[in-house]
Amino acid sequence: MVISKKYKKIGLFAGIVTLAVGVAAFDDDLFQISKNLDVFASVYKEVNINYVDNVNSAKLVKTGVDAMLDGLDPYTEFVPESEIEDYKLHYVSTQYGGIGASIFTRNGKVYVSDVFEGFPAQKGDIHPGDQVLKINDIDLNGKNNDQVSLLLKGSKGAAIKLFIKRDNVPQPFEKNLLRDEIKQPNVSYFGMVQGNMGYIKLDKFLENSAAEVTNALVTLKKNNPNGIILDLRSNGGGILQEAVKIVNLFVQKDVEVVSQKGKIKEKNFTYSTVSTPLEPNLPLVVLVNSHSASASEIVAGSLQDLDRAIIIGQRSYGKGLVQQTFNLPYNSLVKITIAKYYIPSGRCIQELDYTHRKDDGSVVKVADSLIHEFKTKNGRSVYDGSAIYPDIFIKQEKFANVTQALVGKLLIFDYATVYRDKHAKIADTKSFVLSDGEYGDFVKYLADKNYNYTTSSEKVLNSLKTEATKEKQFTDIQAEYDVLKAKLMATKKNDLQLHKDEIKQILENEIASRYYYEKGRYEVNFKYDKELAQAVKTMQDKTQLASILKGEGNYKVIGKPMLAMAGKKVAAEKDTDDDNN
Length: 581
Fold this sequence. Notes:
This protein is an alpha+beta fold. The protein is built from 18 helices and 23 strands. The strands form seven sheets. The protein has a six-stranded mixed sheet, sandwiched between helices. Strands 1, 13, 14, 17 and 18 form a five-stranded antiparallel sheet that branches. Strand 5 and strand 6 (138-139) form a beta hairpin.
């Protein structure tokens, strides 16, 4: 096509005008940035010079930066130099020098909560429940968790002296240890479970998580498993690339797993599988719950979209945002949300809309009316804006108030310490069960302990008294109120027997950890795990397995948002009415 000189001139003029407008807008942006930075620096300078008391300048700047970022999302954050090591430990690598023990504080005193198998604390016979009085002659009384953790950590091979008090030992004693390189694994447990199924518990997606899952899968395959269960419950996520590698273990080469899209085109990227899968055929179940987020949702969601795995559990957290870190002066950094991620069906599972906040600044969920339908590889319906909904939903059971009180008051923990002192050994984890007699001993142990709690019924009754008092009607109902309250108190005394099964479950879990460490916690709990039992049952039922992945019957639609569908139905009916008029 030939364009006349006249139109060429018009086009050139229009381009110059557009460029001029763009430059003007750019200059205005630069001016606003420069102006606001100048104002911020001036305020900081005047406060620092003139404030009546001395100010912590570093804290002042961090508070200002945090306030600036607070209006964005909780994942965009500033990390000063003083917090860099903790940041790396949380988001990048779990490797550090230490003794392999976790601690907690109670009433200003420091106690060991767990020891990890194979590390200095376990080898040096440090026990959960031990009180740590001093570290290298530094008294710990009144120190918080962070201060104590800092004292425990140090370079590999460095000596550390602990002064320990143990309940069944008359006098405090010293323990001299050498710090070792502590690397908490991403895969905290793997092994064979009921039905000859391979089970892998992945806690986080930090460095080498894909390599650890690969190692676990290779080991499990030697047992010729009938299926694989990947447990991502309470896994808060981590490195996106590790998630892609883990999906690749089960999905063929050159398949899109996730894409990230943001304001800056250069940061938009699509991640696909790059190698031949290790296990493309075995039945696969992924377990999720409301605390499975980010990279966990990429793995679960992509395997669901590709119809490669069955998702079992509760709806996931709903974090569909991607962060990138940028180095700042003086060894600080800022982590910024740069994009949203989209899994193979095209959906973004981000549930909270941080861009469109309410006037009071509160964040709302993506409106049902704005949720869209997408299709999996086999044509099943899935939806954006509402996290990952499981193919098989298992209701999350909440522990009773009495159970929560016993855990919160650390009475379960304390009794496990007492039990360990009295029993040199227990049965192996898969057969260990607390007998009725032993549970009776626990009830006796509680006789002089304070574990006050308020039941839901008591809360309702207290609310009734409050409202009746306000309306000056309580005198009229007080006799009935007192009778009902007495009955509730009598019922409450039976709570230890009424909720015996769940209390025994937690007791067995804590006791097993004293003999078999973290591995013991998992294995003793398998017999109580309803999601795990459903995973085994589903993979054993080949007909149901095929029906879910093909989207037959009730499995055609996954997590349909009812309000959104109802709104669309009303709109469709209105359109029909308009057409008829």
